[in-house]
């Protein structure tokens, strides 16, 4: 909130009743500029209400922004730190290019000619 909104709260638009005070035109009354002080308590109450309303609107707007932030997925905030370690481990994995596959097959105990296993089917 800035001070300009408070400065603009003084009544600048005046009705005919406000312009004529005690039967005198505003131009004839040297204190016309200060007549708002006559009702200073009402003026202060009005300014306080406006300030409270602005503060309430600011709080509501901030709550709305906070709720919106919670709805968005932000990996750095929403993912646990262990996910970064998993990502590093995944990045470290590589697919072999096939040179070691012959060595693995020679040590294997599996029958390459066996039928494919299908659950529930008896052979």
Automatic annotation (TrEMBL):
Database matches in InterPro entries: PAIP2-like, PAM2_motif
Q: Which GO terms describe its cellular component?
A: cytoplasm
Any Gene Ontology biological process? negative regulation of translational initiation
GO-annotated molecular function? mRNA regulatory element binding translation repressor activity
Compositional bias of type Polar residues: which residue ranges?
Answer: 1-13
Q: Which residues form a coiled coil?
A: none
Region feature (Disordered): 1-30, 92-111
Q: Which residues form the signal peptide?
A: none
Bias-annotated ranges (Basic and acidic residues): 14-30
Q: Which UniProt keywords apply?
A: Translation regulation, Ubl conjugation
Family membership:
Belongs to the PAIP2 family.
Q: Quote the protein name from its UniProt record.
A: PAIP2B
* Species of the source: Cervus elaphus hippelaphus (European red deer)
């Amino acid at each position: 909130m800035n001070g300009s909104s408070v400065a603009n709260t003084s009544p600048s638009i005046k009705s005919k009743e406000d312009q004529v005070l005690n039967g005198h035109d505003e131009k004839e009354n040297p204190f016309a500029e200060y007549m708002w002080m006559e009702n200073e308590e009402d003026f202060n109450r009005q300014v306080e209400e406006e300030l409270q309303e602005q503060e309430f609107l600011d709080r509501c707007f901030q709550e709305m922004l906070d709720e919106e932030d919670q709805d968005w997925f932000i990996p750095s905030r929403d993912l646990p730190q262990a996910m970064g370690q998993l990502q590093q481990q995944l990045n470290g994995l590589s697919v072999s290019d096939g040179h070691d596959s012959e060595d693995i097959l020679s040590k294997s105990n599996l029958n390459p000619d066996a039928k494919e296993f299908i659950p529930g089917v008896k052979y």
